[in-house]
Amino acid sequence: MIQLSGVPVGDYKSIKFSVGVESRYNDNLSLQIGELSQLNGMTNISWMWMTSYIFTSVGGTVKSGASAPKNMLVETGLNTNYKTVTINLPTNIRISSVKDSEIVLKADVEKALDGVDVFANPIVGASKATIMAQVATNYATKVFTVASAR
Predict the structure, then answer these.
(1) Whole-angstrom distance, CA of residue 132 vs CA of residue 52
(2) What span, in angstroms and rounded, lies between the C-alpha atoms of 140 and 105?
(3) CA 36: distance to chain centroid?
(4) CA angle 56–92–147, rounded 5-degree value
(5) Please, what is the Cα angle at 142 between 136 and 146, to 5 degrees?
(6) Which DSSP state fits 25?
């Protein structure tokens, strides 16, 4: 759960957020702010061979027919895959100082892998830039929906 304060009073018809790390911080891991602090465990969320944070990571085991299962790890990162997500609310929501408002988002991470043959490409990272870009675009366009808004 994320609680926001200081949201200006008004009627809102959508929400907007980003998936990834802004290039200013992604290009310089020594800059630390908020969640990017080492105190929040972010030192292990980067690729060792590149100065860049890992934005998303989905892992598990995949199986196809009679073939032996494979370990899967699909990651996104790099500045070109920083995505801004805008989601329209089912109805306008009024933010005021009189009552609390709540928006519940649903994330269907399986949709991040839409169009990706994870059995043929079980490991996706910067070396598979085209597939990684597709996954990042899926996060921006398919993964998040509004469960409720009040």
Answers:
(1) 14
(2) 14
(3) 15
(4) 40
(5) 125
(6) H
Residues 6+ apart with CB under 8 A from 100: none
> Is 12:93 a contact under the CB 8 Å cutoff?
yes
User: What six digits make up the tokens of 88?
Assistant: 């329209």
Alpha-carbon distance 41 to 114, whole Å? Answer: 30
Would you give the DSSP letter of residue 67? S
**How far lies 3's CA from each of 7, 103, 139, in Å?**
10, 10, 22
Structure tokens at 86: 């805008």
| H or E stretch at 136 | helix 129-138
The reported pTM is 0.85
Residue recorded with tokens 């997500």: 85
Over the stretch 48-101, which tens digit does the pLDDT of each residue have? 556 678 899 999 999 888 889 999 999 999 999 999 999 999 999 999 888 888
> How, if at all, do strands 10-19 and 83-95 pair?
antiparallel
Residue 34 sits at the vertex; the CA angle it makes with 33 and 36, to the nearest 5 degrees, is 65
Residue 102 one-letter amino acid: E
